[in-house]
Write a structure and sequence with these properties.
By secondary structure, the protein is mainly alpha-helical. The chain folds into two domains: 107 residues, no CATH class; 39 residues. It is 54% helix and 8% strand.
């Protein structure tokens, strides 16, 4: 797929937005993505985030960025480059956009403290999909059965297997 902006380079960035049922898809090359997102600035990012209700104003966004350390001068920014899209960590800090999925792995050590500050932790604490609890319980029971067999506690394994079968039938 070619970039929708320049129609020359292959698209490496894809954005899909669904706002009130209106789905828009954008496919851009890395150069156009940087240019468009850098020109759009923080106002568009703050607007996008406020759509989800997480921010009430641009001031809230600036406070969040300030407390996360993203606004600090880039003198001490590590010279790390993503091997896939060639986005540097300094470019990420400037635009607040990663270039590709590999960037999350490349910048992991730098992103983790920022995410912990911005999101108050890195573990999901919200709602879970229906049926997720049952799937988690099934996995736990299967794991307990394997442990019991390894430890040669066969009676316990039989009891756990019966619990597992009841849960599967209930599902």
């Amino acid at each position: 797929m070619l970039c929708q902006n320049c129609n020359k380079n292959p698209a490496t960035y894809r954005s899909i937005k669904n706002i009130n049922g209106q789905v828009t898809e954008t496919a851009l090359c890395n150069a156009c993505r940087r240019t468009l997102h850098d020109n759009a600035g923080l106002n568009n990012l703050a607007k996008d985030l406020s759509t989800f209700g997480s921010l009430n104003s641009f001031a809230d966004f600036l406070n969040m960025v300030s407390s996360s350390g993203l606004d600090r001068p880039s003198d001490n920014v590590p010279a790390i480059v993503c091997p896939n899209c060639k986005t540097t960590f300094a470019e990420f800090r400037k635009s607040l956009y990663v270039g590709c999925g590999q960037c999350y792995y490349t910048f992991f050590e730098q992103l983790l403290p920022m995410l912990e500050t911005i999101q108050h932790g890195i573990s999901h604490v919200g709602k879970t999909p229906k049926g997720r609890e049952i799937l988690d319980e099934l996995r736990n029971l299967e794991q307990e059965i394997r442990k019991a067999i390894v430890m040669e506690r066969y009676e316990d394994a039989i009891v756990l297997r019966e619990q597992l079968n009841k849960l599967k039938n209930k599902k």
